[in-house]
């Protein structure tokens, strides 16, 4: 009797493949009939998250959803890798300031009902400029180097003024700086030097430094200026000790680039 041939199996996955092929062949069934058997579904292991995300772009792109920011219109088109960047001094508010704002905003809304309160308060030191993602950290470091030796200072913003952006697509009710203007000019000079290093637009000539209190879409200067403006100023002037309430301390400069924030303390 002849011996059966020996069959060798490798240590690879070919054995599983052979069994799968055999499962699809005709096999004897009950009643002497032949039937085919469907292959068993293979069980797949879940793909690790590290593999699923290994090809995602490492740059976190800022969202471009107008519904999330009140219908505001971009001053420049969004492009992948471009980050809108803004340099400013944060304005820390106290309880008395918010009490004053609770008087000013409802009065202004009687003239322009669509006015809404700002989510945060600041004084701009730059226009909104565009930075490529890989320039953000060098830009911030250059700002830090400039700010490291700049002294802290007090300022007062107590003059009501109406502002619009350059495109006249947004209107703001603000408080203009009346004390500390010279220090803000010096601060802008330092920021402008960094802007020039990166070939970016510098700040406005003869700027009006201010804290925006409320804003709305569109050009609303006509109903807000004149009588409304005078009445708002009277509210400020008649508020208890407005000089102290609206006196603030500039202790740091901040830079917002896309969804990233950087803080640079003054000396």
TrEMBL record:
It comes from Callorhinus ursinus. The active site is at residues 122, 210. The keyword Nucleus applies. One of its GO terms (biological process) is U6 snRNA 3'-end processing. 3'-5' RNA exonuclease that trims the 3' end of oligo(U) and oligo(A) tracts of the pre-U6 small nuclear RNA (snRNA) molecule, leading to the formation of a mature U6 snRNA 3' end-terminated with a 2',3'-cyclic phosphate. Participates in the U6 snRNA 3' end processing that prevents U6 snRNA degradation. In addition also removes uridines from the 3' end of U6atac snRNA and possibly the vault RNA VTRNA1-1. It is found in: Nucleus. The gene is LOC112837050. It catalyses: a 3'-end uridylyl-adenosine-RNA = a 3'-end 2',3'-cyclophospho-uridine-RNA + adenosine; a 3'-end uridylyl-uridine-RNA = a 3'-end 2',3'-cyclophospho-uridine-RNA + uridine. The keyword Transmembrane does not apply. This is U6 snRNA phosphodiesterase. One of its GO terms (molecular function) is poly(U)-specific exoribonuclease activity, producing 3' uridine cyclic phosphate ends. It is an enzyme of class 3 (hydrolase). PANTHER family: U6 SNRNA PHOSPHODIESTERASE 1 (PTHR13522:SF3). HAMAP family: USB1 (MF_03040). Belongs to the 2H phosphoesterase superfamily. USB1 family. Residues 1-45 are annotated as: Disordered. It holds the Pfam family HVSL. Its EC number is 3.1.4.-. Interacts with PLRG1, CDC5L and PRPF19. GO terms for cellular component: nucleus. Keywords: Hydrolase, Lyase, Nuclease, Nucleus. Gene3D superfamilies: Cyclic phosphodiesterase (3.90.1140.10).
């Amino acid at each position: 009797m002849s011996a059966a041939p020996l069959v060798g199996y490798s240590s690879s996955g070919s054995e599983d493949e052979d069994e799968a092929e055999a499962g699809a062949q005709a096999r004897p069934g009950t009643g002497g009939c032949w039937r085919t058997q469907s292959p068993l579904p293979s069980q797949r292991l879940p793909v690790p998250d590290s593999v699923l995300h290994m090809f995602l772009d490492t740059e976190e792109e800022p969202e471009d959803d107008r519904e999330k920011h009140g219908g505001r219109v971009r001053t420049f088109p969004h492009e992948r890798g471009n980050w809108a960047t803004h340099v400013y001094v944060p304005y820390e508010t106290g309880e008395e300031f918010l009490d004053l704002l609770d008087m000013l905003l409802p009065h202004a809304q009687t003239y322009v009902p669509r006015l809404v309160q700002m989510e945060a308060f600041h004084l701009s030191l730059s226009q909104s400029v565009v930075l490529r993602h890989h320039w953000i950290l060098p830009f911030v470091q250059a700002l830090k180097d400039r700010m490291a030796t700049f002294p802290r200072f007090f300022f007062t913003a107590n003059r009501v003024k109406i502002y619009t952006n350059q495109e006249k697509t947004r209107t703001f009710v603000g408080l203009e700086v009346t004390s500390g203007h010279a220090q803000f000019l010096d601060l802008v000079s330092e920021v402008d030097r960094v802007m020039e290093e990166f070939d970016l637009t510098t700040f406005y000539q003869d700027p009006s430094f201010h804290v925006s209190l409320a804003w709305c879409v569109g050009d609303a200067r006509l109903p807000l200026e004149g009588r409304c403006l005078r009445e708002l100023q009277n509210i400020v002037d008649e508020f208890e000790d407005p000089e102290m309430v609206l006196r603030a301390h500039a202790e740091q400069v901040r830079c917002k680039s896309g969804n990233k924030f950087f803080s640079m303390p003054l000396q």
